[in-house]
Amino acid sequence: MLEDFKKFAMRGNVVDLAVGVIIGAAFGGIVQSLVGDVFMPLVGAVTGGLDFSNYFIPLSSKVTASTLAEAKKQGAVLAWGNFLTLAINFLIVAWVLFFVVRFMNRLQPEEVKAAPAPSREEILLAEIRDLLRQRP
């Protein structure tokens, strides 16, 4: 049983997947930093420092706080601003990843596609052509 597991774990697909997950996690940190430290401050500067993350609707009369963190401690709130902020972050991350993948695809050489095998008719026509060329 241990030998079977070793064969399974060492197959190319499993190892490739593990490497992809590890690199993806590391790359995710880079992209999150790019979004949080570069793009979102620019968005904040363009919108005049507008920050949606503290916008919420209290769902209970007990909620009197002015910040989302304090309001969540007091009762149920609908944190629509936080959702909007995360949705904007997602769009920016997706946009950055689109351009990274596009750039990486341009770096890879294009695969040369093999010509499809000739059909039966093409083979027969080539044989007829060759026979006609051999005639005096």
Itemize the secondary structure elements and their pairings.
Layout lengths: L1 H8 L2 H35 L10 E2 L9 H7 L2 E2 L1 H28 L12 H15 L2
Antiparallel strand pairs: 1-2
Q: Which labels suit this protein?
A:
136 residues; mainly alpha; two-stranded antiparallel ribbon; 5 helices; 2 strands
Structure report:
The chain has 136 residues and is mainly alpha-helical. Helix content is 68%, strand content 3%. The protein has helices at 2-9, 12-46, 68-74, 80-107, 120-134, and strands at residues 57-58, 77-78. The chain has a two-stranded antiparallel ribbon with strand order 1-2. α2 (12-46) crosses α4. The protein is elongated and about 105 Å long. 1% of the residues are buried.
Distance between the termini: 73 Å
* Global shape: elongated
Class per helix and strand makeup: mainly alpha
Largest sheet: 2 strands, antiparallel
Model regions low in confidence, pLDDT < 50 over at least 5 residues: none
Q: What is the H/E string?
A: HHEHEHH
Rg over CA atoms: 30 Å
- Please indicate the percent range of residues in DSSP E strands (runs of 2 or more): under 5%
Annotation field: number of helices = 5
What value does the average pLDDT take?
83
